Amino acid sequence: MPVSTVYRGTLAHSTRDEALQILEDFVLGVDAEGKIAFIEEGQNVDSLSQTWGFQTSDVIQLEQHEFLMPGMVDTHIHASQYSYSGTALDLPLLDWLNTYTFPVESRYKDLDYARNVYTKVLKRTLRNGTTTACYFATIHTDASLLLGQIADDFGQRALVGKVCMDCNSTVPYYKEPLKECKDETLRFIRELLKKEVKCWTLPCRTPIKETGMITANYAHVKPVVTPRFAVSCSSSLLHTLGKIAKNNDLHIQSHISENKEEVKLVKQLFPDCKSYTDVYLKHDLLTDKTVMAHGCYLSDEELKIFHERGAAISHCPNSNLSLASGMLNVRNVLNHKVKLGLGTDVAGGYSPSMLDALRRAMDTSKVLSMQDAQHQTLTFEEAFRLATLGGSEALSLDDQTGNFEVGKDFDALRVNMCIPGGPVDMFPGQGPKVILEKFLNLGDDRNIAEVFVAGRRVVPFPDL
């Protein structure tokens, strides 16, 4: 495969063994399919040019205060809540859902309204360096399909979930009967996946069955089975969704142990289950392609089950604090070897920026250290890993993205710390590790000069 673009300069990424690896004066080549073709020391550029057939004069040289890093991965965000992000943070979770969330989400039967919000959230997250996002939409199939289309149009890698809920006594107009929820979930999956160039085992015109498999034409947008959470789903619906996900090898997303009141309610609703985790386990919803948001009150026994099943947790620190839900002990999750990524959880989290999620994760860890002197505080290097490779692992996409490895897609940010009018001041003698730390703590979208997904430049946005 011919090389289309070659960069030379500083690279920063994570590996399975190192939370942060900084490569100074390295050359990275991207092939015509948007995959990383090579990563080698800069001194080898001449031999590389002969091997790969590019001109050294065409190499893009990064400036002294520039670097490339992997795109950030938002493992939990409610695209449909973006319209009221930054507001409505005065209530605890369950009251917040009934007062603000469900009434707003019910508006998405209006596709013009949906298009306006979804376009804005896609552009905002991409500007802030989110190359991969795991989205909750609403119960509306057509609007959820529209979110997938918009994500593909803008080039973001995305998992999109049509929300499933058949129980909602407080806001009764925002739910679906069990059969309708099942049928519409299957329609959502069928319509999103029939965009494939080729259908391997079913003709494209044939509806997807609980046992069917189809491949998608949206190269980087996939469906994710989305029971909202155990409180709003009957056991029958949970069983149905577990079967659909299992038989079609789909991702699963939901919420777990976010708020103490919610945990108590789940125990009342599912008395035959040992724990909140056991609810999802018994309904075949805890797999190696499952990501559960929050997990603030998971016991060690539940974390052990997560590890055994290969399921992941999305840490949403802004939302946990903003709704006064709780604080996840990240160190304990990592000690249990559970896959872990970061999520903005818009709009419970008021910021759509993964940099904010990273900062709030470190803040939460420091608060836990104040409460317990034995607690090991999360380092910025570890937080960087959670925002990139950790997120791709949590979404079971780490074979495609998350760091700079030959063969993976080039999902990357070009960061410029000396952008005119930028938020950070630089000083002589500050090396690449300091520059990265300053970006993580002080930088914002102004420092993100370019964003790439699978080699395609998606920011700045092309003129339409």
Give the tags:
single chain; 464 residues; alpha/beta; 9-stranded parallel beta sheet; 4-stranded mixed beta sheet; 14 helices; 36% helix; globular
Structure description:
By secondary structure, this protein is of the alpha/beta class. It is built from 14 helices and 17 strands. The chain has helices at 45-52, 93-105, 111-127, 141-154, 178-193, 235-248, 260-269, 276-282, 300-309, 317-322, 330-335, 354-371, 380-394, 432-442, and strands spanning 3-13, 21-31, 36-41, 60-61, 66-70, 72-78, 130-136, 157-161, 163-164, 221-227, 251-256, 290-294, 312-315, 339-342, 412-416, 448-453, 456-459. A hairpin with a 4-residue loop joins strand 2 and strand 3. The longest helix has 18 residues, at 354-371. The chain starts with a strand and ends in a 5-residue tail after the last strand. Residues 195-216 have low confidence and may be disordered.
